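ok so for the tutorial part 2 we go from a plain amino acid sequence to predicted structure tokens. step 1 is just haveing the sequence, like this:
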Amino acid sequence: MYKRVLSAALVLSCFGVWSPARADEGMWTFDAFPAAKVAAAYGFTPTPAFLDHVRASSLRIAGGCSASFVSSRGLVMTNHHCTLGCVSQLSTPAHNYVELGFYAKTEPEETKCPGFELDRLDAIEDVTKDVQGATAGKTGRALVDALQAKEGALALACGTSEAIRCDVVSLYHGGIFKLYHYKRYTDVRLAFAPEYAVGQFGGDPDNFNFPRFDYDCSFVRAYEDGKPAVTPEYLHWSKNGSKAGDLVFVSGNPGSTQRLLTVSELEYLRDVSFPRTLPNISELRGILERYQSESPEQLRQTKDLLFGLENGYKALFGREGALLDPAFFATKVAEERELRAEISRRPELAKTVGPAWDQLAAIEEKKKTLYYLTNYVAGGPNSASFRLARTLVRLPVEKAKPDAQRLPEFGEAKLVTLPQTLFARIPMYPGTEELELAFWAKKMREDLGTDDPFVKLVLGAKTPDVWAHDVVAGSTLGDPAVRKALYDGGAPAIAASTDTMIAFARTIDAASRAARKRYEDEVTGPESQFEEAIAKARFAVFGTTVYPDATFTARLSYGTVAGFVDGNGTTVPPYTTIAGLFARATGSEPYGLPPSWLAARSAIDPATAMNLSSTNDIIGGNSGSPLIDKNGDVVGLIFDGNIFSLGGAFGYEAAQNRAVAVDSRAILAGLRSVYHADRLVSEIAP
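step 2 — the prediction. this is what the tokens look like for a chain of 686 residues:
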């Protein structure tokens, strides 16, 4: 039903990547926001002062979420699922904050989140001429090296202290390059998180659906010099909330869209990437669920991991469904055909850009043959201890090179922030590490073959389970002091280390580097070259009337509070209520409310708005984004999209694509009546 209804809507409403955005479509950069278009449609003009205020009040959470300042003393609002990692890391068997929730009744009780970073975008600088000048005339490996060198040099010159982060951002697939200047907050402390049962009410069955009844909110605080950060730019709380039809904005950091990809690139995702990724996620999810059933402690240790797997699977499944829909894919083919026709009418553009689509198609064929090499040999296992080991092994090697010749993640500008990640006191659980490593090794052997040299290099004569147990049992990288000693000891310490995870990272490093280099030479470099050529041509035709694909950087979208008509023809109103939350509760997961909410039921107005839907164009990464009205006041907190938003990676569908938020009135009602968090209430809504 979802795919059939989605295709019909997309044929009618999904406008081409080659043409200017229409309706409420678009994840716009702050320096190219279509204020005049909003004014024409809604009678409200977002002024430069409005845009600057919203930008300065908004935050990015390193790792994949968004957030915002909601007080002058560094108080930050985001989603429960965006702080779930912190809550899990602070939990112990004796104090399980995931299940029981967390509230710091006093400021000294606010507890530091290990490795947590907030970034505030302070300035945007156009560096297109610098970057394109450095890469002009280069192809393949030379292009990759020149691009990395220039981006590293620009970031290094900009990042003058640990409190400043600078990233070169490629927009329009290389059509424009911007240098984003960020203020970093690395002392971030948990102030409030609800119980998992209400913070993730509805669980996987309700995920990417609406109506919703979820209290997916959390508060942390940014500190500087041991004191709450002074943040004069922050979002005020709306006194009355929103109503249907209101103009609303979402300020956040959408992670990644592929709306500007060519047809051949979309075919690669549809035919190669998704079919190989989704079964693996599903299989790992089943293994993890069985592992959780073995003990309450194993459940506690892996709850955050399972949430991520379930969310990722559903998102990718929806994207695959969109690309498998013949009607939708036909719109992408038509869009590309029309763009190529437009370019062909411009001789100078056609001469340089015309062959780029066919050249990209050839690269996508090459990419298919390198899929497993890239995934297993270049990538390695998705294990926390392995990622640390690889960083420690490569660090002294890369530091010995000139900055321009290093792997990008070891550029001088990146090394400023590296110790925060390396030495964070994040618990690593041996059982979970074994599970993830064994699964990776099994899939590697299955996909590469038992006789593959890399498989033999990793496993030797061991089974994946035995190998995973041995490599975890012989490692002490879970101890930050051990990592610090290896970091300080440099190359001699790494070479002499008998830690089994370090030894594993050393063993595969040469093969991994070679696979990475091959992929960059044969895919990344040429792909960037031809994507940039097409991007420049599109830009020459449409300029900034087309918004760039999402890149996990600051964007602003606009829309209205609105419901939709679902696949059964039923009109879905834009609001749910707290009465609906209690009516939906069954007492069993994932619809079991915690005792705090059951006890407070009579104290909460049942008509209070719980969740709401809007037409704002969002994607993964927008989790934790504030939903604000035209006064810049908080009326909600984005935490999800509906089922029709899952195709949003490839195109916006106006009729049914909806963003889903916790209503600001529900957030306050919970803080006041359930948690009696008067300290926070007086700070955000005095």
